[in-house]
Write a structure and sequence with these properties.
- The chain is of the alpha/beta class.
- The chain has one domain (about 1-125): Response regulator (Rossmann fold, 3-Layer(aba) Sandwich), CATH 3.40.50.
- About 45% of the residues lie in helices and about 15% in strands.
- The chain contains five helices and five strands, in the order E-H-E-H-E-H-E-H-E-H.
- It has a five-stranded parallel β-sheet with strand order 2-1-3-4-5.
């Protein structure tokens, strides 16, 4: 799978890369440091990702702002977006689902818990039928 990770924290980027490597998964991770950069990549005409892992708390454009823009795009609105965040704010969760996300995962503090959660998320999307543009 091609995974677009929209994350501004380098430690979180390394955590995902380490998890994918440790689980011996053959996924390609494309990185964007913020929503603006992600929209540029998505609109560039290059291969679209199979899933998008989105952090909510980012500079320039929040994850929710990114979602609102993405869902207005006739091609990109079908991309499965999984929010991967530390935010346990119920208002964020409800707003994300209202806009149209595929999942909301709270990042655990312990790496082992993070790895377990991410392995389940990735395993699900590996077998899920995806809309191909």
């Amino acid at each position: 799978m091609n995974i677009l990770l929209i994350e501004d924290d380098n430690i979180e980027i390394m955590k995902l890369q380490r998890t994918v490597a440790k689980l011996a998964l053959n996924h390609k991770i494309i990185e964007a440091n913020n929503g603006e950069q992600a929209l540029e990549q998505l609109r560039s005409g290059n291969l679209l990702p199979d899933i998008v892992l989105l952090d909510l708390n980012m500079p320039r454009m929040s994850g929710i702002e990114f979602l609102q823009i993405l869902k207005e795009d006739s091609t990109l609105k079908y991309l499965p977006i999984i929010v991967l965040t530390t935010s346990e704010n119920r208002a964020d969760l409800l707003e994300c689902y209202r806009i149209g996300i595929a999942g909301y995962v709270i990042k655990p503090l312990k790496y082992e818990d993070y790895q377990e959660k991410l392995s389940k998320v990735l395993a699900y999307w590996e077998v899920n039928e995806l809309v191909k543009g």
